[in-house]
Amino acid sequence: MADAPWLSPRDDGVDLIVHARPGARRSALAGVHGTALAVRLAARPVEGAANDELIRVLAEALSVPRSAVSLRSGGQSRTKRVHVAGIDAATAHARLAPYLN
To answer: Do 18 and 31 meet the contact criterion of CB atoms below 8 Å apart?
Structure first.
């Protein structure tokens, strides 16, 4: 999708490029940061807590089970690639649109 460079369709779902901001007051989608979907995370990046919180936030926003969301790369980085199984790009974009600024 041209207006969403952070969203890539795959055969079995979509990949999202995410810019994680750990240590926020509360977890929430926070619009776009460059070419990535920005997500504020209340959890600190200790022992995978921020990554777990990221998966929870994305699953809730996309209305998919947590098991459908997996971290593909960037486990130790703020920029991450996340795969969401069982959803097409148009549906993912429509469900995330209310959170974009």
So the answer is: no
